Amino acid sequence: MRAAIDLLIRFQQTAREGVLPPFDEAFLRREMELMPEWFIGRHLGREVAASERKVLDDTFTLLVQSALAQPRTFMLRDYMPRNLMVCEPNPSVLDFQDAVYGPITYDMASLLRDAFISWEEEFELDCVAYYWERARKAGLPVDADFGEFYRQLEWMGLQRHIKVLGLFYRIHYRDGKPRYLADLRRFIGYARRVAERYALLWPFARLLDSLEGRAAEVGYTF
Hints:
Elements lengths: L1 H12 L11 H8 L1 H10 L6 H19 L3 E4 L8 E2 L6 E2 L6 E4 L2 H7 L8 H17 L8 H30 L8 H14 L4 H16 L5
Antiparallel strand pairs: 1-4, 2-3
């Protein structure tokens, strides 16, 4: 993991504006809208209620504002163990064709809140602290306050979790690949943990509870 973090820092040090597409507000919102479209609309088969839409809109705005307030750097977007190969020098990176220019915490959130592997929170914190210390020494513009940096990372991760809650259902229904559904439980766990930790996100946590209950009522899995 430290080798992966060290490589990420070297990659971010090369960043400059105008090389990769921007991960901007429209991009962020388009990704999150996959959740109401494909989970609520397609999977649960119903319209999004007005009260639910307000919670989604408020949550999306908070997450967009947090993301856009961060320093920007090169982002691979799927920087996770399945896309890292053991080699010399270690590691090598796969699946980099969707790289963009965006929030500095994104790839660390992707690495630690992985679609297919769950880490203990103590290990996650050790990795975040290692990245934060090394990034500061490397001159990267991470927040000087570790607590604020960690909040930024968690909220950035939540944006990704929300996207995945729609994306995996889209892959299932549109592309005929149901195997991804088995990992949705992991993502709902990530999303709930973050939403319950911050008061501004509590309405979204309650919405997740409601949606999960409705999915169970009709015999669907989350």
